[in-house]
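Model it.
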Amino acid sequence: MERSAHRETIEALEASENTYLTLLRGLASVLEMDDVEGLRSMAHIPKDERIKLTGLREQAVELLASRVKVLKERITRKDELLQGYERDLAKLRQAEKLAQHKTSQLDSLVDDVRSKSEEAQYLRESLHRTRDRLDQEKRLNSAVKSKKTFHLERENHSRNGWAKHHCPPEDVMGKAKASKKIIAEKMKRKNYEITTLKTELSTRERDLHGARRRLTQLENTPVSDRDPQEPPAIESH
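Modeled.
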């Protein structure tokens, strides 16, 4: 009975040592420390050699633990670097998103400025043409007045001749007044048209100035100061 118990104890110790050695050898191999000493069995060796082997095993354990500690510190530093890279990457993506948003705002403002510039140019041309027509009608009106004055003078000289021919005198004054009234109405409409064009042109130029100012502000605003949810400030007319 005692022999059986003793044998089981020896077998357990041998199994424990074999497992321990397997663990150390595997760890040494993974850590590329195959030259570590002391990784051999203590069975069937003298006492003094067992003492020496125990010291070698302690040194091996210290070396392996030291290597594991160094590797752990390296992994920790790499993890910290990786986290820093991830934060920088997130900032870069955010900056790209803001840059795309700002580019979209710039494109919208450029289109708005171009549209308002074209409207203002069209209104200037319309105003110029209207003024030219008004000047032409003024010259025509002046010519008509001169012609009417000439005819009135001729009619005054030939009044005595109407009685001889028994013809009713032509209502020259009435026609002149009617013509003058028509011309006055045309002038009034043209003046109103010019006033309207001036007002609209002034409004468009003011809008154009505001759009250009917003465009300049947006171009000078750093990307990091922009809100990606902020819409471009464009006035529609």
